[in-house]
Amino acid sequence: MRPNESELYAALIELAQSISGQVDLDSLCSGLAKSLQRIVDFDYLALVLHDAARRQMWLRSVNGKQQMAVTEPWVLPAEPGNPVGWVWFNQQPLIIPSTEQETQWPEFIQRIRHEGIRTIVMLPLTSCDHRRGILGFGWQSLRELPPAELRFLNRVASEFAVAVDTHLTRQELVRERERLRVLFEITDTLVSKLSWDELLGAVSTVLAKVLPHEGAAITVLDKVTGKLHLHALHIANNVWLEIDRTPLPAADLPAGRALETGQR
Length: 264
Prior knowledge:
Elements: H1 5-19, H2 25-37, E1 44-51, E2 56-63, E3 75-77, H3 83-90, E4 94-96, H4 106-114, E5 119-127, E6 130-139, H5 147-190, H6 196-207, E7 215-222, E8 227-235, E9 248-249, H7 254-261
Antiparallel strand pairs: 1-2, 1-6, 2-3, 4-5, 5-6, 7-8, 8-9
């Protein structure tokens, strides 16, 4: 027996309370899936996040009655050429009632069919104009959602978007605080009386807190000869390498192209 509309909205209040105390995305998704299972029958719940830097959508978490083995990252362009990108781009729900009859987006549909999913509902996750991603539901059997149930899932997506946005904003603030702390440490290091290799090693060690890397180097261009000189070198974990420091033509090196173009 399916719940009526008043029962669905009473459940929505309980749902908001159940996810409010979660501290990470996996816990948020797991809590949402467990709470929803008592109200709406579904096999899969998926969280897809938007990566603004790369303009991509990537599958972040899958929960539900069924387990989906995500053996490799599932990344899609944030554009209307695929259903996930279409929902994010248009900010509208998308229902695919039968993956067996769907003719659009063949590559995506083929992968969904491979997981045994026959019906899909995808909803935009947007909070305060922050387009965070997509909340998706999947069924292994053909499913027709009543209007009240679809409206309920839309409300769920709206509430969940706030929780996801809060979590991601908190993460961004923590990263920014750590970057500022690293900048202060680097500033303190720069005024120390160290050799160039020692100075680069100290800066590299501090920078590794927010930007993991295996080594760092400083090259200096001799404008007269057009050659680059290796001015300082640091390898992580104090690994010693015998490096030939003979100046080389700038045009033959990536660093030279970076100097010429002003790009990374």
